[in-house]
Amino acid sequence: MNKTFISLLLCASLAMTASAQNTQKSELQQKAEAATTVPAQRYLHIRAYEDYVNKGQLLQGVECGTKAAALYSKDGLHKEAFEFLRNVDQTINAKNPNNAAALHYLVTKERLAMYIKFRKPDSAKEQLQQMEAQVAQAGDEKLKEDLLYQKAIYFYTFGLNAQGDAVFKEMASKLTASKEYDKVDDVYKQLIANGRRSNNASMVAQSYNNYLAWKDSVNALKHADEIAALKKQIADNEAAIEEKDSSLTTRWVFIVGLLILAGALAAALVVGAVILLRFILVNRKQKKTIQLANDSNALKSKFISNISAQLDPTLQKLDSTKPEVKALLGFSQHIQQLSELENSDTEIEMESVQIPAFCESLANEIRPLVKKDVNIKIEAPKMSMDMNKEYVSHILLHLLKNAAIYTPEEGTIWLEYKKRSAHTHQFLVADTGCGIPEEKREDVFKPFLEIRDLTQGDGLGLPICKQMALKMNGDLEIDPEFTKGTRFVLELHA
Questions:
Q1: DSSP string across 333-358
Q2: Phi-psi region for residue 373, left (φ > 0), alpha (ψ -120 to 50) or beta?
């Protein structure tokens, strides 16, 4: 249900409470974090792990060791990752520190993340059980909070939403009760971000609804705390006035101060009420439009407003097995993906890819979709290039699937790669379908131009592909010189 979850913000507090060891990062660890390639990062984290262990700084060593294992897994070296984690556990046992249970917990949590990535619920559940025993032995409240979040991840990942909601609510309630509002806010945002990265519209919608409800209640609590603090301050000042000298001058000084404070309180309450009202209105609008409305784009705002107005009555009449519901969920996912692409400034990760094998794998994915006797032609020279494989695969698969839909029987679909210069590369996807009218070619990459029947498609596929191309310092266009059907050109700059 969800893909690999990134390291959680709660783990930062875990690292600070698990041990009283020096938290200053070593030179090796700093070099590991500054490295630009996965192999270099992994090698340096292993070196940092060994250095910390030799110095007796086990907490920092275990943190570097689990990071190295995660980097093994990221490169597909899963066997090496598990072997390295076993090595870390053996090192902890050999050193026999006072906080051994807390250190083993970090190692087990990395295994849990890997089994979740592999979609192995039984193995993941076994790791959770081990983590529960380790938390019980460590007796650390921060570990208990982190365990609740790991359980929520597990339940949401494998479709156990009710159990996930229960443990997540328990964790949020504990943090809210202790007035650690920022931590709860970070947890909700992390959960929503995880859902978006995994393209899990159901998880995003549920998490976002819970987040809005919690945010409204916390704002009310914060304002109540502020008002109570101001009232207490007023009461303290009044008591101080009574204890002061009874002289008229002194009394007037305190009275003026009290009036100023009362005025500040009134102003604060007015400003707070305006801010709270504005926040509620903004949140309600964001809830209706799934937080993806672009205020500077009138067409998009109007379209999303129309869609939001139709969501509630439609969903009340349908269940999750209906095509309409599936269409709405897909639309929500696309909007979230498009918004994230437009607003994210995350650096794009690159990897070396063999062009022939890459193109052949894409073609194999669409072969079952093409009509009778459609010929798929691949022209890919034996070479490699650095690319963001996730984005390029998404764009080319979308174009190829569209080509499969519109190419008639006995037609042809082309997937070509061309190196135009030392730093310019092109992927071309063409078909012998009906083509796109010239007057509509400029609009296919623009979202929200018209109200559509979502069961027939939301029109966001090509705009999302366009944004991905731009994020990679490239572009996606329709070749106007191709007249046999349609040809798209994805141009990338190294």
A1: HHHHHHHHHHH--PPPP-EEEEHHHH
A2: left
Q: How far is CA 246 from the centre of its chain?
A: 63
pLDDT tens for residues 422-481?
889 999 999 998 888 888 888 888 887 777 777 677 778 889 999 999 999 899 999 988
Cα-flanking dihedrals φ and ψ of residue 77, to 5°?
Answer: -95, 65
Q: Of 476, 389, 374, 484, which Cα lies nearest the Cα of 428?
A: 476
Residue with tokens 């500054």: 34
Tell me how far apart the alpha carbons of residues 419 and 412 are, in angstroms, rounded to a whole number. 23
pLDDT tens profile 377-397: 999 999 999 999 999 999 999
Q: 119 in the Ramachandran plot: left (φ > 0), alpha (ψ -120 to 50) or beta?
A: left
Q: CB neighbours of 165 closer than 8 A, spacing ≥ 6?
A: 206, 210
Per-residue b or e along 157-177, where b marks 16 or more CB atoms closer than 10 Å to that residue's CB? bbebeeebbebbeebbebbbe
The overall average pLDDT reported for the chain is 80
- Contact between 350 and 386 under an 8 Å Cβ cutoff? The reply is yes
